[in-house]
Amino acid sequence: MDKDIAKSKKENLVAFSGGVDSTFLLAVAHEILGEKSIAATASSEIHPKRELREAGDFTGKRDIKHIVFSSDEMSLPVFVSNGTDRCYHCKRHLFDSIFAIAKENSITHVAHGANLDDLNDYRPGFRAAKETGVIAPLIDAGLNKEEIRFLSREMGLSTWNKPAMPCLATRIPYKSLITGKKLKMIEQAETFLLEHGFTGIRVRHHGAMAKIEVNSGNLKDILSEKLRGNILEKFRDIGFKHIALDLEGYVPGKMNRSLKGEAE
After folding, report:
1. Model pTM score
2. Which of 79, 101, 91 is nearest to 132 (CA)?
């Protein structure tokens, strides 16, 4: 992977979300290229504020140049309408913005943290990456998520066991309009659960109903009498009229199950 990252003596820009994969990629790039490695992070309503803070903390502690830009996906009608190709339009818009930043800074290569496991799910954003010329060093190196977590731990990265945290729009079922109000409700609800010690959680927005997904091992905990009452009170304050718990628990890619035929 070192060769993939260092293929050019010019600066490389990493699309940095602060997640496990992009953090590992940025750390390795910075280790190899030093000041020639730059991070770019999108800021908008669809990205949890806590993720932006954590991304800033990481680059600040390592003295990595970090460019935060407004991605403003909500200005895109094709994104807001939330079709099954929503991710493609979002990523195309994101990568176009990042390449504009790269051009302004005379940067040749833009990389993102896609890994081998991502190839097994519905990822229309890959088409956007290919169209715009974004490189995927972790895929080129043949690394999957488990290996990236292992290597991150070996490097002392605190993100080695961080749960996946895609954008908030992924909590809204396809073809259901994406609005700022829905995104805010989702973020507030998930923040509440995170503050109560739950990890690997999702709050799905189904109109007036919030559907909570937690790791299957935490199902019993979330149903404790006191916490259940606190959740009901908080979620109703947020604006949900009905609160449901998914008995299957959190499973990655669950929202894409309905696309088995449609995604082909």
Report:
1. 0.89
2. 91
